[in-house]
Write a structure and sequence with these properties.
By secondary structure, the chain is an alpha+beta fold. The protein has one domain (5-129): Gcn5-related N-acetyltransferase (GNAT) (Aminopeptidase), CATH 3.40.630.30. It is built from five helices and five strands. A five-stranded mixed sheet has the order 1-2-3-4-5, with helices on both faces. The chain is globular.
């Protein structure tokens, strides 16, 4: 299989990203905000990319941001990589993650972090296969 075509996400892709997130379910920020997060992503200058099939349909997407750390270095945060179920396990998630990280590296990032739900073993395995390691564990409780 040829690598997917990956392009910067635009407002024209938002409906397709929201539809993809709905098919995946879970507690993604995109679903929790009924898609409003997509506009915020663009407004805040975050990186977002889509993977397109041969017909130009969105089959996956990635979202990341860049921040200046106290050390004076730029740290990237990989917020989301999602791939439509029929396209999973074909290297599309890896291609999206690597493309996104390369773009952030080009903007000066020296480190990338990713946050996953504690019980999301699939996401943890995906990130581990890309070379990510557990740095800290955050625990929380409702008050």
């Amino acid at each position: 299989m040829q690598p997917p075509r990956i392009v910067e996400a635009t407002a024209d892709h938002f409906d397709a990203i929201l539809a993809l997130e709905r098919t995946l379910g879970g507690a993604s920020t995109v679903l929790l905000t009924s898609g409003g997060a997509l506009g915020e992503i663009a407004a805040r200058g975050h990186e977002s990319y889509v993977a397109l099939d041969d017909a130009g349909a969105v089959i996956g997407w990635a979202w990341a941001s860049l921040e200046l750390a106290r050390s004076g270095e730029y740290v990237a945060h990989l917020h989301r990589v999602a791939v439509a179920a029929p396209w999973m396990r074909r290297g599309i998630g890896r291609a999206l993650a690597e493309h996104t990280v390369d773009a952030l590296r080009a903007r000066g990032a020296v480190l990338v972090r990713a946050t996953v739900q504690g019980d999301d073993e699939r996401a943890r395995a995906f990130l581990a296969a890309l070379g990510y390691a557990v740095d800290a564990i955050t625990m929380e409780r409702e008050l």
